[in-house]
Amino acid sequence: MKGTFIFFADGFEEVEAIATLDILRRGGVDVKSVSIYDNSLVEGAHGQQLITDLCWEDLEEIISTEASPSDYMIFPGGMPGAKNLAEFGPLMALLKAHWAAGGGVAAICASPAVVLASLGDTFAGLEMTCYDGFEATLQAAGIKHKEAGSVVDGRLVTGRGPGYATEFALSILAQIKDRDTANAVSAGFTPR
To answer: Which of 173, 145, 12, 132 is nearest to 78 (CA)?
Structure first.
């Protein structure tokens, strides 16, 4: 899958999704938001409604089987958002194909455990963080848990939860662009 996409399902964690989208765009990444539904309207875990750039049908028209490490599929957490993403079969098939083709993946909060760990041994042996309380799910899938705000393991980026959304997004930006770009965006959030 060529490009960078952040996937939305009803029940997504607003802070994680919007912070990631905003920081990547500030860093010059052409990231598209995608609803897994047949329309672009999604509702967050706390009632915030959002209109995505694309709905699933739009994405199906532009899907490519090619991927590079700078092409990212991003999964915000939140419940039941992460569960809704994991239960959408076409998205999970795309995720497996994207990872197998060498693409990057990022997930935060519940999504490392609920979305990524649901794919059996696809991510086994890699190191991830997740929302507190989901560690056993990672470990059961053969994934190494690390207690940190954000963890980068090759072309995989994971984040712990809403309080780490900025750190998570900056880690993705550093992987897609470079550390200097991430530092420049981060400097814009630092009080002078």
So the answer is: 12
172: helix, strand or coil: helix
- Residue 73: inside a domain: yes
In a domain, 190, yes or no: no
Q: What is the pTM of this model?
A: 0.95
Q: What is the DSSP letter of 67?
A: -
What's the total number of domains in the chain? 1
**Digit-coded pLDDT (tens) for 109-125:** 999 999 999 998 899 99
The answer to whether the beta carbons of residues 50 and 19 sit under 8 Å apart is: no
4-8 and 127-128 as β-strands: parallel, antiparallel, unpaired? unpaired
Helix H or strand E segment including 152: strand 150-153
CB atoms within 10 A of CB 51: 12
Round to whole Å and give the CA distance between 146 and 162: 17
Task: Give the whole-angstrom CA distance, residue 76 versus residue 62.
Answer: 22
* Token pair in block for residue 24: 């990547």
Domain range spanning residue 65?
4-183
Question: Quick check: 134 and 110 in contact, CB under 8 A?
Answer: yes
